[in-house]
Specification:
There is one protein chain. The protein is of the alpha/beta class. It has one domain: 3-Layer(aba) Sandwich (Rossmann fold). The protein is built from nine helices and seven strands, in the order βαβαβαβαβαβααβαα. The chain has a seven-stranded parallel sheet, sandwiched between helices. Strand 2, helix 2 and strand 3 form a beta-alpha-beta unit. Helix 3 packs parallel to helix 4, helix 6 runs antiparallel to helix 9 and helix 8 crosses helix 9. It starts with 12 loop residues before the first strand and ends with a helix. The structure holds nicotinamide-adenine-dinucleotide. The site of nicotinamide-adenine-dinucleotide has 32 residues, from helix 1 and helix 4.
Length: 284
């Protein structure tokens, strides 16, 4: 197979968290196809095992149960690998809807998985990579880590933290032989788009239409872009092109983007109200 990252991952070791679904699964598959030996870690062991079953070589894959909110378990997993070339801190969750409907338990859950989960991966893998004088940490953030979209407010907060952590760490890590890459996609076509809605908000349609996304990225395509960015040791991957344009616009015209964001929220509320009215009508 010809890829822009040919040879880069052959016989290298990698851990992918959240490997039981979506982006993590596609990352694991792309890595094994590129020759890496991959630990597919997920809260859902059966899902991680499905990832392993569908993986094809020349690399290898094994599944482990891992809760990234458990710092000791993450440390144990990293220790068990020995030499670690790539740590993909990818597991994540989301909540979509009005922030007043978010419970404190949900705030804590998203902080625990999306921020602490990444911190645990970094705290376990980075000192090892510093000792090795080699390795790469790859954190999955989001466009939500670069721009402030409403109705996913808690998610946006966590992903901004992941971007900040990654870019700051990169500036420390480079002189120690360790790379850090943060990936920021807009919508990717995975099960996460169907999860985590609170209050009256439901379904990927309201989110995608409200955000003006016609076609979410295919996770296989995104995984390929991630491995290319990692092989090139890029600081950040922002994708697709429309996301890069929006992000740059936001840097030059923050007021314009804030106003657009308010419009997106209004549009999403309207779409959702229509959906609720329709459901009530058909139930009557
Ligand atoms: N799909 C998108 O539109 C999109 C866009 C930007 C960023 N992201 C980010 O990409 C990452 C992967 O998301 P996805 O779209 O593949 O979602 P997904 O829901 O398909 O997969 C997430 C995986 O993480 C696992 N997970 C959840 N909590 C965990 C925990 N505590 N410990 C270990 N594993 C856990 C789940 O079991 C699941 O297998 C997330 O960080 C997400 O925020 C997704």
């Amino acid at each position: 197979m010809n890829t822009p990252y040919d040879g880069h991952f052959a016989a290298r070791s990698a851990i992918v968290t959240g490997a039981g679904s979506g982006i993590g699964r596609c990352l694991a598959h792309a890595l094994t196809a590129a020759g890496a030996d991959v630990v597919c870690a997920d809260l859902d062991l059966a899902a991680a095992q499905q990832t392993v079953l569908a993986a094809s070589g020349p690399g290898t894959a094994r599944a482990v149960a891992l809760d990234v909110t458990d710092a000791e378990a993450v440390q144990e997993l990293v220790d068990s690998v020995g030499h670690l070339d790539f740590m993909f801190n990818n597991a994540g969750i989301t909540f979509g809807g009005e922030t007043e409907d978010l419970t404190l338990a949900q705030w804590n859950a998203i902080i625990d998985v999306n921020i602490r989960g990444v911190v645990h991966g970094v705290a376990a893998a980075y000192p090892l990579m510093v000792r090795q004088k080699s390795g790469q940490i790859v954190n999955t953030a989001s466009m939500g880590g670069l721009m402030a979209a409403g109705l996913i407010t808690s998610y946006v907060m966590t992903k901004h933290a992941v971007v900040g952590l990654s870019l700051a760490l990169r500036s420390e890590a480079q002189a120690k032989g360790v790379g850090v890459t943060v990936v920021c996609p807009s919508a990717v076509d995975t099960p996460i788009l169907d999860k985590g809605y609170i209050g009256k908000f439901h379904g990927r349609d309201y989110y995608l239409k409200g955000q003006g996304v016609r076609h979410p990225l295919a996770p296989e395509v995104f995984a390929d872009e991630v491995l290319t960015a990692v092989a090139e040791d890029r600081a950040m991957l922002v994708t697709p092109r429309t996301a890069r344009i929006a992000w740059r616009l936001g840097r030059f015209f923050p007021g314009f983007v804030q106003r657009s964001s308010i419009k997106f929220v209004a549009k999403q509320r309207k779409l959702q109200d229509k959906r609720v009215k329709k459901a009530l009508k058909s139930a009557a």
